[in-house]
Design goal:
By secondary structure, the protein is of the alpha+beta class. It is 21% helix and 21% strand.
């Protein structure tokens, strides 16, 4: 984890967007059929216990009921974040999970967030949430809800970076606060997951400088270089 500006759970006054130069336009998501082929090429279907034909069949049905520009996701119960993260690439750098997040696969959707039941589904209208950079997760979640949007879970955030690697840009990365770790009795772990770029410092190792990274930040802390990824809604394949 990188250094933070406030203590865990600290709440300041109204958050102010971080002053920064707007990032250049990035490629949009390709059609669902193309995204399916990308996942097949990466071997995600095999990791999920699905055949390429099964993936293409489900995607064919999904494509009939979703608008263009949606993000194709394999359900995290089939392919957890720890398995997906090493498939990330920025240049020749392989993705990884930080060493102090060995429990990454125990992070689950927050209360009120339900994932479709099928093996694959679509998240529409994904945004990186750059306008909320310098907000804390505790501050951002109510605003995302007020906008009638849904925060991405970690697996969805990784899928986005698999399809559009350039969505992970230095100084313009994102948190996935739809995933949290529940602690007994009903409390939440203070960590919130994020996808960003390693500086090659500390336990990351110099060889990982520039690599895509799954890490975490405190729920009450702000970071000028992290937005909050969200989507409009989730759509599962129609039952047949």
């Amino acid at each position: 984890m990188t250094s933070t500006t406030t203590a865990p759970h600290a709440r300041a006054a109204t958050p102010v967007a971080a002053p920064s130069v707007a990032p250049p336009p990035r490629p949009g998501l390709r059609p669902l059929a193309d995204q399916a082929e990308r996942l097949v090429t990466l071997g995600v279907h095999e990791l999920a216990g699905l055949s390429a034909a099964e993936v293409r069949d489900v995607v064919g049905h999904l494509a009939q009921g979703v608008p263009d520009g949606g993000l194709l996701v394999v359900h995290p119960r089939l392919v957890p974040p720890s398995v997906l993260a090493p498939l990330l690439r920025l240049g020749d750098k392989e993705g990884f999970v930080v060493v102090d997040m060995e429990d990454v696969d125990r992070f689950e959707p927050i209360e009120g967030l339900t994932l479709p039941e099928g093996p694959l589904y679509v998240v529409t209208g994904v945004e990186r949430g750059d306008d909320m950079a310098n907000w804390s997760p505790d501050e951002a979640l109510p605003e995302i809800t007020r906008r009638d949007r849904t925060p991405l879970v970690l697996g969805e955030g990784i899928h986005w970076a698999l399809q559009v690697p350039d969505v992970v840009e230095r100084n313009h990365c994102y948190m996935t606060i739809g995933s949290r770790l529940r602690k007994a009795p009903g409390r939440l772990d203070a960590r919130t997951p994020a996808v960003w770029i390693s500086n090659g410092t500390g336990r990351d190792g110099k060889e990982r400088r520039g690599a895509p990274k799954v890490g975490w930040c405190w729920a009450g802390n702000r970071h000028t270089w992290l937005g909050f990824a969200s989507g409009a809604r989730r759509i599962g394949a129609p039952t047949r």
